Amino acid sequence: MISTPWFALPPEAYGGIEAMCAELVDGLVELGHRVTVIGVGRNGTKGRFTATDDKPAGSRRLGNSRPEVLHAARTARVLRSLDSDVIHDHSMAGPLQAGQRQAPTVVTAHGPVTGEMGLYYRALSDTVHMVALSRAQQAQAPDIHWSGQVHNALRSAHYPYRDRKGDNALFLGRIAADKGVHLAIDAAREAELPLTVAGNCNDPSEQPYIEAEIRPRVGDDVHLVGEVDWHTKLDLLASARCLLFPIQWEEPFGMVMIEAMACGTPVVALRRGSVPEIVEEGVTGYICDHPAELAKAIGSVDRLDPVACRGRVRRHFDTDQMAAAYAALYQQLSRRHPHNEPAARMAPA
Asked: Which of 98, 159, 275, 277 could make an S-S bridge to 105, C-beta 3.0–4.6 Å?
């Protein structure tokens, strides 16, 4: 299991890919599989761990190519010392070496399948086995050779359930234009519900958006707290009356939605990407077709049952289910591609 160079496993705050990776490692170990993790910093998983760097590169270096290529080079050296049945690579640069690996490489499409990232995944798909995070993501790129689709997941027992909610809504995620943070602020203000805005705001490319659209909207009813640690995040999720998710792109999977529901907190979202696969309309939240509908939906969240929110996560987005689905794919690939078959000759599934 190859993680990224950006954050430890699990991440202390921001880091959706790393959180998913850590959950998957633990789920696979609990199923009886032997998992070697290649990552950075400390090891917080149940797998055997090798670090390519003592310190994670961190959010301030996101987008810098040097941590990626250094991580990939050191990972290649570690892999040569292992006898792996399957390699699951969550890094960006690492899968470029899949053609030289003996074991099949699985790549989960954590990013968009349009634009440059889509071109990258298409170029990779001759030598790796692509996995989509949602049916919506698959539908966006039917020409990619998909080997499977597995929803991200979490361990609901690790999330505090609270049926008595506070008097505020919550936005939690990257403070970025494609997340629709300004729409969350406007909708909460129209609904006359205070809003807490928490998330990573260090991306230099997003600073013009933050200065132009977010800071002018901050007031007594909008509290911008920035990036928060794990325990603060859980408290915010559990106490909020609802989570606002006015996404502005076809996000393949919104981890924060299932985190909120695991805490018994309903979601008010726009109908983009995987939202209809995650939120059950009128049961665990409301799905709006236009930003103008968000405020009315916020005003109706008290009708929703927190028990139903947590129950949906337990039934459909639990770590055990994700681990079992990936394990089935790994076993299929390891039978199809023996160790003596070079990866470069593998046909995609």
From this structure: 98
The DSSP string of 294-346 is HHHHHTTGGGS-HHHHHHHHHHHSBHHHHHHHHHHHHHHHHHHS-TTS-GGGP
> Which tens digits make up the pLDDT trace of 222-257?
999 988 988 999 999 999 999 999 999 999 999 999
Phi, psi angle pair for 78, to nearest 5°? -65, -45
User: What topology is assigned to 16-153+318-345 in CATH?
Assistant: Rossmann fold (3.40.50)
Res 209: pLDDT: 95
| The domain made up of 156-316 is a member of CATH 3.30.420.40 | no
Place of tokens 């987008």: 63
Q: How many residues does the chain have?
A: 349
CA neighbor of 91 nearest in space, from 82, 83, 81, 79: 79
Q: How far is CA 222 from its chain centroid?
A: 26
SS3 146: strand
Query: What are the tens digits of pLDDT across the range 272-328?
Result: 999 999 999 999 999 999 999 999 999 999 999 999 999 999 999 999 999 999 999
Beta bridge partners of 169: 195, 242
